[in-house]
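Residues and backbone
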Amino acid sequence: MSPSDQFDGSGSTALAALEPEPSAVHTALPDDARRARPGRRLPLTLVVPGVLIAVAALSPAAYLLLRAGFSFSLLRDELSSPTTLPLIGNTLKLVVIVTLGTVILGVGAATLIARTTLPFPRVWTVLLTLPLGVPTFVGSYAWVAFSYRYFPESQLIFGLGGSAAILTLTLFPYVFLPTLTALRRLDPAQEEAARALGHGPVHAFCRITLPQLRTAIATGTLIISLHLLAEYGAVQMLNYETLTTAIVQRANLLGMPESARALAVVLALGALLLLGADRLLRGRVTPVRTGGGTPRPPMKWRLGASTPLWLALCAAVVVAALAIPLWVTASGIVDHLTGSGGDVDWDALWQALGNTAQWATAAAVIATACALPVSLLAVRYPGPVSTFVERSTWLAHALPGVIMALSLVYLSVRWLYPLYQTPSLLVIGYVVMFLPLAVGAQQVGIGQASVQFDEMSRALGKGPVQTFSRITLPLSLPAIGTGALLVGLDAGKELTTTLLMKPTGEHTLATALWATTDGEVLDFTAASPYGLALLLIGAVPAVLLARATLRN
């Protein structure tokens, strides 16, 4: 048996799937040789760009406080308004219910695949990852169109219940993938020792294995909860009022931008609370045996006669998450092909597809480059400065797209006018919003590249640039690439920010779909070509993530 690796618990993002397998030398390193040493001098080549990126990420939040028209008395008035507390309550209920639902679905599905004799685990891994490629507003759009078409009198999918169910089915892969990756890395010896001492399989799993998954679960739930704070399209479709829908209405429809910014400050404070809760949930780093030191696969729980039941449950989740969007989209395409749905503007579709691919790819490349100094600081030089820089990138992820758009438009008009209403400004918005996805991915990959390798390279006379390019970068490249995939995926699906910041006359697939009905869900036929293109584009990175998990 090879010496066991030490790792911090669970592969902190879905992107842990792409980490390279540790080498023999790597697995032989003691734990303290593989971790960054506290107190190391912070290099200016990382601190300066890291702080600048943190300032850029905080600029939308600064806009809320520093823009003329905002005051703390206005914030107090908004908080005392009879409509504000219900909005906060609605938002809180949605975040809690969806987060709990995604944890139950994600951890449960990962456990079934990794720890039981469920048939066809590779197939289920791919199928349960595919909902990641369905934009939340497209899923909601499809469900509402399906309801209007086949159950016109039903109100079942509207309100809190429908919103929570549809968002849970769309977002649970953010928990499923990192948990599955973590389960496959853990050494089963500890769990089996507990079973040998008389504990049942479920008790041993909950007592020994589940605590080691908290980092994976925490990262997935943080992404989901911050996403829910900023979600607009899906909840607007499903007639559920949250802080974000109220902010958009005040900013766009009621002509009350100061009130909108005051509510956005409340939302930003909620994001800060979530970031603090995330730190508490992760707790202290708990070394566990993983990776190259794992001697054999774990003993799997035999499902026996209950196998058909678990297969039916997995199939029900896949059908609920994918079947309705695919069915409604396919029905619209059939209507177009048979002539009953009108003609498709192929030129507009191809132009929207090209814009989506071009702008999302640019955002992925730039976000990957910007995330590197942040990730290197957080992993190699832990401390107050690196924590501030890394945590700052998450705040913008929780702000509504309308606030992000208004802040960047204000900054461009005030100081960067040549960028106003250009694709460049939109790409900057994507980078600020989705930078945390790249940072989280890179932290996993860089964390697996031992710091002792860097020190050995420097001792051999190599400079920091050569050390990074020849040692750290190759070991981290798979995770870095997957972070770029996630940024591109989310940028391609983004609706609200794109609606407000896109150049005049231009569209992405998301805005073109939305424009087919101006947000009124009456018939999905006109939107179906754009919906199909979005689903196909989203499926590509989702399948790549699933394949990476299977390779791991």
Notes: The first helix runs from residue 24 to 28.
